């Protein structure tokens, strides 16, 4: 597990197919195994478009197609078994727990407000 490559990216919206392909190509080229994405700006059905190429599992929280949105992409060859998902309805965070190489892990992708928000 010590060689698992994880990256976090604020993608600033990936509605356009070319930008989505560039992001997936970057992840593949850099041999990333887990990607934590923020500011995806995708709806629930659009998030599923990310499941291509090397992506085996995708977990996400959506708000609307113009703002917010987070996702966790897991490489198809990574032996990750999901246990629980915690997500908000505002597209601000997604947390998942599961087994990776026999170890219980927690992964999270968070997109915090860019202004002070006491409730967050």
From TrEMBL:
It holds the Pfam family Exo_endo_phos. Residues 8-107 form the Endonuclease/exonuclease/phosphatase domain. It catalyses: Exonucleolytic cleavage in the 3'- to 5'-direction to yield nucleoside 5'-phosphates. SUPFAM superfamilies: DNase I-like. One of its GO terms (molecular function) is metal ion binding. Mg(2+) binds at residues 10, 39. It comes from the Eukaryota. The keyword GTP-binding does not apply. It is an enzyme of class 3 (hydrolase). The chain crosses the membrane at residues 93-112. GO terms for cellular component: nucleus. Its EC number is 3.1.11.2. Keywords: DNA damage, DNA repair, Hydrolase, Magnesium, Manganese, Membrane, Metal-binding, Transmembrane, Transmembrane helix. InterPro entries: AP_endonuc_1, Endo/exonu/phosph_ase_sf, Endo/exonuclease/phosphatase. Its cofactor is Mg(2+); Mn(2+). GO terms for biological process: base-excision repair. Signal peptide: none annotated. Probably binds two magnesium or manganese ions per subunit. Belongs to the DNA repair enzymes AP/ExoA family. This is exodeoxyribonuclease III. It comes from Astatotilapia calliptera (Eastern happy).
